[in-house]
Amino acid sequence: MENLHDKRKVYDKSQLIESEIKQNPIEQFRDWFLDASDSPEVSEANAMAVSTVEEDGCPRTRMVLLKAYTHEGFIFYTNYNSRKGKAIEDNHKACLHFFWPNLERQVIIKANLEKVAENLSDGYFHSRPKGSQLGAVVSPQSQEIPNREFLEEKLKELEKEYENTEVPRPAHWGGYLAKPYEIEFWQGRPNRLHDRIIYQLEDLDWKISRLAP
User: Are 73 and 112 in contact (CB under 8 A)?
Assistant: First the structure.
């Protein structure tokens, strides 16, 4: 057994106090996201963990890229037939988690999910590199396949088929809008007395509270 008792660091880069935060959590997220995007130490500020609950009652988490955020919520794209897509179809809730360790910050978002309009999915799909478009068509995401060659052969076939024409967006591929009802901002602080500010949606207003670390 490897002893990890001494694997620790001091968190002292910033603070999160009520007098300095935004009253709307999306605006607070925007400020933190811009800080992460501008930091040379953060390689993918829009990388987030998305957790859903599957049929056996166990949560499942995977990394996904945030592709947009608005006053309504957070948008990402995926295969609707994937494990995450089926879990969202059964339970329209998910938890999104951003972790920017170099800034000693986390954001945890509980949200209700709904599919975005088809024209938005079309627009994003056709903005992607053609290889990524073909990959979305080729991959039966989350389904068992015989080997990697199965995918590579299908990709070669589609590269020929769509060599001189536009790749149509598959009906089973598109975006989700995660509409938050709870957002927690975590800022690392010394002595493990971290700052935790939580926004909770009550009717149309956001209630702001501080949580003990």
Answer: no
Strands 59-65 and 47-53 turn out to be: antiparallel
Q: Which amino acid is at 140?
A: P
Lookup: tokens for 74: 């957070």
- Start-to-end Cα distance in the chain: 29
Q: What is the pTM of this model?
A: 0.92
Instruction: Measure the CA–CA gap between 2 and 157, rounded to whole angstroms.
Output: 48
At 71-108, the pLDDT tens digits run 999 999 999 999 999 999 999 999 999 999 999 999 99
Question: Which amino acid type is present at position 85?
Answer: G
* 47 strand-pairing partners: 65
Packed helices 130-138 and 118-127: angle between N→C axes, nearest 10 degrees: 120
Backbone angles phi, psi at 203, to 5 degrees: 60, -110
CB 15 within 8 A of CB 189: yes
Give me the active site residues, please. 192
